[in-house]
Write a sequence for this structure.
């Protein structure tokens, strides 16, 4: 039976994952020494086991070393395979050098993960200039997609929706969701001027004024993309939008500011947040069960896609 080991902050998600998949839930201990260095101890026996370390990688820097140490300890103590289950995968947006001298952080981050784990499983990584995780990661990387779950939630909760993408790159989710919900869709156009500054152009939406706009995006970070899109929809006389995101990072005042202009905001539980309404554990459990049964899937075949917006978008 697989052993699920949560890194701090991922305990509830890991418990759901273990329950969904019928896996054993283990424990590890971490703390800091007085000098600030990390201490990691595996409290479950990993020898001869397939071990899944569960760690959402939102705001990864403070906890990253203990994750690498935990993976190393699992291998050292005889685990047959060590998988990283990261519902949110970090450092995907700095995928090119936008200004001279910048570190293209997606690459060294992928190298570090690849050297510590045997496999990676994640949900909707921000693939923009990389066509698939196989371009970046040297280990088998399985990508799962949340669009069917977003569609299920919208179909159950929002009558008469208009599915809206805030930029062209969100088109993949928008099309997949609109087709499943059986609703019309529209894509707006975004120009990013800075980390917290975006402009959104909107076509004439007068004919959709009787529908509830549902804004869909992969990531909400500063929230500016969704806030600006919502503002433009309101200018056009549409009702307050519902915002549905895969990864709700909601930096600083993003959530409070977006709340001012939205009817409702929901996210998947890839990043722990009060907006979590869509559970990912069942699809991740199915992916882990497939590994166990020797049907691992591969990252390109699992549907990795290009065309999503980058950090610069
Ligand atoms: O506008 P914020 O919330 O900062 O950033 C999120 C946006 O930036 C893009 O990379 C994402 O795909 C999303 O559209």
């Amino acid at each position: 039976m697989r052993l699920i080991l949560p890194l701090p902050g991922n305990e509830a998600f890991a418990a759901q994952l273990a329950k969904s998949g019928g896996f054993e839930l283990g424990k590890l201990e971490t703390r800091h020494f007085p000098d600030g260095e990390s201490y990691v101890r595996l409290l479950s026996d990993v020898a001869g086991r397939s071990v899944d370390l569960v760690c959402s990688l939102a705001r990864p820097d403070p906890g990253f070393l203990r994750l690498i140490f935990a993976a190393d300890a699992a291998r050292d103590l005889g685990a047959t395979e060590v998988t990283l289950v990261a519902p949110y995968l970090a450092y995907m947006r700095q995928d090119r050098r936008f200004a001279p001298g910048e570190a293209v952080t997606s690459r060294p981050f992928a190298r570090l993960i690849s050297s510590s784990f045997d496999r990676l499983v994640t949900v909707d990584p921000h693939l923009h200039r990389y066509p698939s995780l196989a371009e970046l990661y040297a280990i088998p990387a399985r990508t799962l997609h949340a669009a069917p779950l977003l569609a299920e939630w919208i179909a159950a909760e929002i009558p008469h929706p208009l599915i809206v993408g805030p930029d062209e790159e969100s088109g993949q989710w928008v099309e997949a969701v609109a087709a499943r919900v059986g609703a019309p869709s529209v894509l707006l156009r975004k120009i990013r001027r800075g980390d917290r500054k975006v402009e959104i152009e909107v076509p004439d939406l007068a004919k959709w004024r009787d529908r509830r706009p549902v804004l869909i995006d992969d990531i909400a970070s500063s929230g500016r993309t969704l806030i600006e899109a919502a503002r433009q929809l309101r200018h056009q006389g549409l009702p307050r939008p519902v915002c549905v995101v895969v990864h709700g990072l909601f930096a600083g005042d993003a959530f409070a500011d977006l709340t001012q202009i939205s009817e409702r905001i929901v996210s998947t539980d890839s990043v722990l947040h009060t907006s979590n309404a869509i559970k990912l554990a069942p699809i991740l459990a199915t992916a882990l069960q497939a590994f166990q049964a020797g049907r691992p899937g591969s990252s390109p075949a699992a549907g990795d896609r290009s065309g999503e917006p980058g950090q610069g978008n």
Q: What stands out?
A: DSSP finds eight helices and 16 strands in the chain. Confidence is low (pLDDT under 50) at residues 298-312. The helical segments are 11-21, 64-76, 106-116, 147-157, 171-181, 224-235, 254-261, 281-292.
